[in-house]
């Protein structure tokens, strides 16, 4: 009698908002769930080192953020990720990027997801890091899996979080004011 096969041989590590993770281990799978947030997956094909970050907003607003809150911003998350990869032997000129997330989760709010995606693309252009794939925008959350040590990634829509279009409320016309007051 054969023993049941394990679900898979991978070690899964969840990456939450404000985190960056790096590895060269081909058995590690980084996972995250994104709405308007962005995850940048970077990989150096020669060093076989990859990493992921998960940021909430592109850049701080008008107020000066404290050190702890900087983790939420793309400008900080991208630098932390790149520096951690360089420390593991990656070379900046060999980095390849994939971007995920940036959905519009609330149609009535400012397009935070679109702003995050524009920031991430511009950051990669400014740093001369090749963007090889992206799955950004739309109206659904995404679940991302990244085998960083191999540079393999997958993004799936989380369809039960789809934001329906806003419904217009039609109000009946107000009654004509004829000057009489009615008590009941």
Q: What are the low-pLDDT stretches, counting only 5+ consecutive residues below 50? A: none
Largest sheet: 5 strands, mixed
Give the tally of structural domains: 1
CATH structural class: Alpha Beta
Helix content: 10-25%
- Architecture (CATH level 2) name: 2-Layer Sandwich
- The CATH topology turns out to be 60s Ribosomal Protein L30, Chain: A
Q: Give the helix/strand class.
A: alpha+beta
Helix tally equals: 2
User: What is the 3D shape?
Assistant: globular
Order of strands across the widest beta sheet?
2-5-4-6-7
User: Taking all residues together, what is the mean pLDDT?
Assistant: 85
Rg is 22 Å
End-to-end separation: 82 Å
DSSP strand (E) fraction?
Answer: 25-35%
Written as H for each helix and E for each strand, in order along the chain, the element string is EEEEEHEHEEE
E-strand count: 9
What do you see in this structure?
By secondary structure, the chain is an alpha+beta fold. It has one domain: 60s Ribosomal Protein L30, Chain: A, CATH 3.30.1330. The chain is built from two helices and nine strands, in the order βββββαβαβββ. Strands 2-5-4-6-7 form a five-stranded mixed sheet, covered by helices on one side. Helix 2 links the parallel strand 6 and strand 7. The longest helix is centred in the middle third of the chain and has 15 residues. The chain starts with 10 loop residues before the first strand and ends in a 26-residue tail after the last strand. The mean pLDDT is 85.
